Amino acid sequence: MMASGFAYAHRFANGLPAPAPRWTGFPKYNFIGGHNDREHVPAAELAAAAETVLRRDGADLALYNPHGPQGFRGIREFVVAKVKTRGITCTPDDVLITSGSGQGLDLVNRILLNRGDTVILEEFTYGGALTKLQRLGVNVIGAPLDDDGLRIDALGRILDDLQQKSVVPKFIYTIPTVQNPTGSILPVDRREALLALAKKHEVPIFEDECYADLTWNPAAPAAIYSIDSSQVIHIGSFSKTLSPALRLGYVVADWTVMSRLVGLKRELDSGTGALEQMVVAEYFSRSFEEHVGELTGVLKEKLDTMVDALEREFGTAVEKMWRPKGGIFLWIKLPDRIDVTKLVAPAANEGLVFNPGPEWSCNPAETKSHMRLCFALPSKETIREGIATLARVCWEQTGIPERSANIRRAPAAG
Amino acid sequence: MMASGFAYAHRFANGLPAPAPRWTGFPKYNFIGGHNDREHVPAAELAAAAETVLRRDGADLALYNPHGPQGFRGIREFVVAKVKTRGITCTPDDVLITSGSGQGLDLVNRILLNRGDTVILEEFTYGGALTKLQRLGVNVIGAPLDDDGLRIDALGRILDDLQQKSVVPKFIYTIPTVQNPTGSILPVDRREALLALAKKHEVPIFEDECYADLTWNPAAPAAIYSIDSSQVIHIGSFSKTLSPALRLGYVVADWTVMSRLVGLKRELDSGTGALEQMVVAEYFSRSFEEHVGELTGVLKEKLDTMVDALEREFGTAVEKMWRPKGGIFLWIKLPDRIDVTKLVAPAANEGLVFNPGPEWSCNPAETKSHMRLCFALPSKETIREGIATLARVCWEQTGIPERSANIRRAPAAG
């Protein structure tokens, strides 16, 4: 089946992504992607929820979008209750269920952006958002971060500078609560200052709260959307709190924006999978706090395991470690003379994958010594072995971290 | 929440679809869309399947694309078994699971089409396919149909004519088995002749078998893909056989094409919903033939009810009725002086919706007296009442069908 009898090569469209390789399974040390902890998928509870909803509402599956194009009523009602814990007061009419928050990003991008537009992102940010914006031909400006998130003074200077050039950015994309990849939480005074700047410059805020449910300390400041629903578009996800394989996210927006999002989604697909909406609504309506409470405990332990392993294996060679306040990833910086992109291939040979800094940055050339390490999927034992393997690969390629080859080769004991 | 405090109007992208209206529920007489029979969603069996798969494989939901980007192994294995009944021999590596067959259309279009390209469709064809091609800026040529589907002689002339103009069409899109909207089944000799023409002119065939499982007579000719897998791309769906709300379809293609489809899908989304793939694989692996056998029996009865009602209410005013050999829709032609697009609004006022012919045609201006009526969702009683209502609206607007106003107003008894 490898060779085709028909010469497709001259028929393919321009600008396609490269052909996919055949899939050969997951790497052993899998430190990328939004995967979750296998042992904490509540399979039996989801089965019970499926039983309940299918017996009650199964006939609804005979229709496309049985509760209209915004999604199942039950899950929109659950989103209303969930975002209330983020300070947001809204109704199911303000909620659109999407096929993952990735579709939320696509929809918001596409209702607002034309080729050549300018948007402001955080200097380190979600790689998927960067990829989507590049594909749309949009200019990306990275605003500086510190340990508490966006630096308002620096953002103000960027906005002033753009104003002088008569450039009106289409939005400011921010991940204020468990920032990706730095894990910071933006303090309440900065949220207010950010909104004030956005109002002054008449720029919408695009607030991504994909990880906001997974904080070590539950008392994060309210979402920016809660302060002004008219100038903020809010998205979130069930991928991180429950399962990335279910492909469920949501957008919260007022009707001016929502009517555009719904109009576009109706043209792009015929709805988001209904069984998953029904099951998640049923399960989370009863068990959200309990499940998320347990999951964040597990994630915090895995983070601690990874931090310990990095300190043991890399020592001071980790020049900076952004200790996340929640979530599933750790952002670190190695010495300047290490180019992590050159570690990708040798690490892959050892069955190890990580996100190189440039993929998660508005300024790739300045982020060659950074990397993002996800810790939700691997077991603690695999985390320890994997970080030891990473240190060995790094030492073999760069001589850093400086320890004897002997020590490098032996994975640390548990 | 109606008014926005922020002036988005100047910020929206160019060329967006119109804002969606607020959803107000389904019309009473719903003769559009691929909805299915509410009483024949196998809810209890799906619940049992969900229980089985979640207890067995639930931990897999912790990962994006747990069995790789082509979809869950179990459902790809089921597709392999299912398309074998259509004469196709393939492996799970030749199968891509998509978010509905609509995503299959999008992916195939996008790997092959550039703006300005030419494609050949059947003169009457799936409205969604036409909409997608219009959005891509592609030239559409409609090839004539008769009661058995594509007319090979006419298609040959179209291809010769294009060749003289040095235009190489990018594909021939055909729905050979339960054609949408005419319900015909292309005979085996025409399938072979179609492929011979495609080979002569070096044009791929894009074969859409969304409705092929729902035939009144199970012995439809084998899929065109079964004759030549290298020059044919084959798509199908679980929307019609099980549930449109589940958003599950598939593409079968050889690796030259598949690797491009997978590369593109990976860039566009993060996989298709996994729970739905798992549940459908589990249920259909045991019960496909039984379920589809029962469903087609129900659909045939509803079709007969609709045909009876049309004959009773419209008489000879239905100038032509394409009696479908399977599926969920009926394509009819009213007298030339009826423009069905002018019936849309008055019918909607009576709670009745249908697909006007121009939306399902490559030559809209020539199809103003045609309409498509879907019969899977409404009950037989609703079908009878709805067709009587349609006849009354039509008479009020056009004086056709010619019967007394009195009779027009009384819905036919069951």
Care to describe what's here?
2 copies of one chain form a homodimer. Chain A folds into 2 domains: 25-41 and 290-405, Alpha-Beta Complex (Aspartate Aminotransferase, domain 1); 43-287, 3-Layer(aba) Sandwich (Aspartate Aminotransferase, domain 2). In chain A, the strands form 5 sheets. A 5-stranded mixed sheet of chain A has the order 2-10-9-8-7, sandwiched between helices. In chain A, strands 11-12-15-14 form a 4-stranded antiparallel sheet, with no helix packed on it. A two-stranded parallel ribbon of chain A has the order 1-13. Chain A has 414 residues and is an alpha/beta fold. The first copy, chain A, contains 11 helices and 15 strands. In chain A, β11 and β12 (329-333) form a beta hairpin. Helices cover 39% and strands 13% of the residues of chain A. At the A-B interface, α1, α3, α7 and α8 of A face α1, α3, α7 and α8 of B.
Give the oligomeric state of the chains in this entry, treating copies of one chain as homo and distinct chains as hetero. Answer: homodimer
The helicity of chain A comes to 25-40%
| CATH 2nd-level architecture of the largest domain in chain A | 3-Layer(aba) Sandwich
Order of secondary-structure elements of chain A:
EHHEHEHEEEHEHEEEHHEEHEEEHH
If strands are numbered along the chain, what order do they take across the biggest sheet of chain A? 2-10-9-8-7
Ranges of chain A with pLDDT <50 over ≥5 residues? none
Q: How big a fraction of the residues of chain A is strand?
A: 5-15%
Distance between the termini of chain A: 46 Å
Q: How many runs of DSSP E, i.e. beta strands of chain A?
A: 15
User: Would you state the CATH class of the largest domain in chain A?
Assistant: Alpha Beta
